[in-house]
Design brief:
Helices cover about 45% and strands about 20% of the residues. Strands 1-2 form a two-stranded antiparallel sheet. The longest helix has about 40 residues. Helix 1 packs antiparallel against helix 3. By secondary structure, the protein is α+β, with helices and mostly antiparallel strands.
Amino acid sequence: MKIKVLLSLAVVALIVAAAWQIGGAEIANLNLREDIRDVAAQTGTHIGYQAPMNEDQVAQLLIQKAGDRGITLTPEQITVRRKPLDSGFFRGQSTWYVAADYSVPVNLGFTTIRLHFTPSSEKGGT
């Protein structure tokens, strides 16, 4: 009887630990996706608050923001492209298409799985 209880507690602890790691990775990814969308919008540039950035500066800013979220990115994992605005108040200006492609290891005790994320500035990116 005691063995069943201890084994059950061990399984529950393993499930909770895995859920905690997976949940943390998902939340970090959601926060990074919001950061990517903020960087891509260049709101500060459009209102004259910031100087325009080039592709390398956008990538470096994204690497810094990812690091703040506990996510390690390299320039090779980031896609940055200028996207002109064709309509609306900011016509003639541009915004960015920004995306990242990375994996996060999740240690399950007996094995490690990798969660793959591809957040982007486009709606619907995961």
